[in-house]
Amino acid sequence: MYSLLMTKHTTTAAELVRQFSHYSDLALKEPVVITKNGRPRNVMISVDEYERLKLRDRQVFLAEDTPQEFIDDMKAYLRGEKA
User: Fold this and answer.
1) Domain map of the chain by residue range?
2) Mean of the pLDDT values across residues 38-65?
């Protein structure tokens, strides 16, 4: 899990509104934690990082949780059948 302690950039929601362009540019390089009432509430990240994380979510599963369709495709591939 991502640790909020590892980020260099933290700002309040109010400051984010005032300097959105600045924090938007920072978020292209690394996450920006946005706080409200002194507590972390949101994280601003680049679109590239978001897409990377979403792709990772779709690719990772335990072997025992492998979807049957995927298993069938692998078996067909091993038999030399084209999908």
Assistant:
1) 1-45, 47-83
2) 84
Average pLDDT over residues 45-72: 82
Place of tokens 């706080």: 35
Could you tell me the two tokens for 64?
A: 């025992």
Superfamily in which the 1-45 domain is placed by CATH: YefM-like domain (3.40.1620.10)
Structural contact between residues 9 and 32, judged by C-beta atoms closer than 8 angstroms: yes
Backbone angles phi, psi at 49, to 5 degrees: -65, -40
- The rounded distance, in Å, linking the Cα atoms of 28 and 5 is 19
Torsions phi, psi for 55 (to 5 deg): -65, -40
State if pTM tops 0.85.
no
DSSP-derived letter for residue 8 is: S
> Residue 26 pLDDT > 90, yes or no?
yes
